[in-house]
């Protein structure tokens, strides 16, 4: 199944769903650019559809989880405190 076919299938069943999970505002956030290999981007698009979330929200969640794992591993507290 192509990404386009998957979108068509998912969006056809999403008419009654709630809005995507996303940040309430970008105020106070840093906007950045991210380059991804095509296959990773495709997987991220599909995950966003399945999770009914914005891609940016999934990326923020993944970065936060990764940094928390690193901080636990190194014994550092959150945000360098």
Summarize the topology.
Blueprint: H1 3-13, H2 38-51, H3 55-74
Helix pairs in contact: 1-2
What would your notes on this structure say?
Helix 1 runs parallel beside helix 2. It is globular, with a radius of gyration of 16 Å. The protein contains 3 helices and no strands. Helices cover 56% and strands 0% of the residues. The protein has a domain of 41 residues. The model has no long low-confidence stretch (mean pLDDT 83). The longest helix is centred in the C-terminal third of the chain and has 20 residues. The chain starts with a helix and ends in a 7-residue tail after the last helix. It has 81 residues and is mostly helical. 0% of the residues are buried.
Task: Supply database-style keywords.
globular; mainly alpha; 81 residues; 0% strand; 3 helices
Percent of sequence in beta strands: under 5%
Helical proportion?
55-70%
Number of strands: 0
User: What is the rounded distance between the termini?
Assistant: 47 Å
The biggest beta sheet is recorded as:
none
Order of helices and strands: HHH
Mean pLDDT, to the nearest integer, reads: 83
pLDDT below 50 for ≥5 consecutive residues: which ranges? none
Q: Which word captures the global form? A: globular
Structural class: mainly alpha
**Count of discrete alpha- or pi-helical segments spanning 4 or more residues:** 3
Q: Radius of gyration from the CA trace?
A: 16 Å
